[in-house]
Amino acid sequence: MGFEERSTTPVMSRRNIITLDFPGSMPAICRLGPVDSASESRFVVRRELAPADAGIPMMLRVRVLDAVDRPLPGAVLEVSHRAPDPSGPMLCGAQVTDPHGYAEFKTVFPGWEADIPAGIDVTLYLAGSRDAGRLHFPAQVTTQVAGLPAYRGNPAPPPPPQPPAGIPQVVPRDRYDLTAGLLATISAVTER
């Protein structure tokens, strides 16, 4: 009877499965560099940057580490990126890192421009200093997202720069349905 049950279940073809294969091992690390802290910058502490129906929902989890890989609790991590719709506003928010150096943001997969790949700008505020970096997404993920309705207004997606500033590990929440959302994790390392 078990064989009959298995033989009658529908079989998904490989084409319907969302695949995010990375060539070789890619460390999910974004190196942050110092930025001129003379300019006035105000951030809004906000975990939810966009409503889920604005694009592909994405949970971004960033772990902030110092130069010797120790977590940095109590730092302020600010993220900003383009909305999926080219005419939409910039989405931004900030979080204070927890005791283990983590900050989480509930957002959507970012949009892109003809010459700027999909990415998220990251700024770290710690002890009066400011470091910044940029997260880029693999071309494979961006290409799959580009075919979805919320992203069709964007131009053809350019690939991330070589070498990239930082590429998060991206996992779909449902391997059969990209619109169910993405989980993205990365470590942001400062030299301070």
CA-CA gap between termini: 63 Å
Helix- and strand-based class?
mainly beta
Report the biggest beta sheet as strand number plus sense, adding barrel if it closes.
9 strands, mixed
Radius of gyration: 18 Å
Overall pLDDT, averaged? 81
Principal-axis shape equals globular
> Can you tell me the residue ranges where pLDDT is under 50 for at least 5 consecutive residues?
1-26
| Fourth-tier CATH superfamily name | Aromatic compound dioxygenase
Could you say how many structural domains there are in total?
A: 1
Percentage of residues in strands: 25-35%
Fold-level CATH name: Protocatechuate 3,4-Dioxygenase, subunit A
Number of helices: 2
Instruction: Give the total of beta strands.
Output: 9
Concise synopsis of the structure shown:
This protein has two helices and nine strands. It is mainly β and 192 residues long. Strands 1, 2, 3, 4, 5, 6, 7, 8 and 9 form a nine-stranded mixed β-sheet that branches.
Notable features of this structure?
2 helices; mainly beta; single chain; Protocatechuate 3,4-Dioxygenase, subunit A; 9 strands
